[in-house]
Structure prediction request, 256 residues.
Amino acid sequence: LALKTMNMGSQDYLVKSKLDRTLFIRSVLYSIERHQLRNQFLNEKEKSDNLLRNILPETIADELKAKGKIKARHYNEVSVMFIDFAGFTGISAAMKPEELVQELHTCFSHFDAITEDLGLEKIKTIGDAYMCAGGIPIRKETHVLDITKAAFKIMEFIDKRYQDKQAAGQEYWRARIGINLGPAITGVVGSRKFTYDIWGDTVNTAARMESNGTPGRVNISKTIYDKLKGNPAYSFENRGTIEAKGKGLIPMYFIS
Prediction:
């Protein structure tokens, strides 16, 4: 019986005929302390797991916990979107620090909700720029449509804030959005403040789509255009080939 109870998780046992009051009390206190420590450990583990999943995609976080490292992956088709605020530098210079941070928090939190709802992966923010991608880390057939829908929802949100601020006599920035489609590599870099990131010419071209766009418009590459051109829900404006820094002449299209 003693062996059976030890196998079930007990730490000690007392013989009824030789019951010692002090030993009994000590055993009970030890059991209570052990139970409390176990619960504390489980609570802390849950907190650390939640924190990790806020930093990394869930499947990547699970892989990191299981294997201690993340395998780099190549994807043949990833959609990448950059959002930037036109007029940000001048307008933000006139804002109080806490006001600026709160405004960015409001915008980026709304972007987060949109991308999460559409199954996209937020990659990072850099200053006033926001970057997300579709088709990673889990491949998804609808990611081009999803990222396009996200672009219009984000543009609608920023346009509404712009109009409200203008009506109140305040300056506000406009959104400039660029999207591209192509192959990319993903992975986790760093040993302390590690991040899930994406690399490749597809990313660079997506950034050029944004920087060569127009405030209030969504600028797309030919690869995105080729995917969506048969969709009656969208109309396109062929901008021709435009000189992009470090890329040369690139075909670009406005989508609406």
Observations:
- Residues 21-55 form the longest helix (35 residues).
- The mean pLDDT is 86.
- The two ends are 75 Å apart (CA to CA).
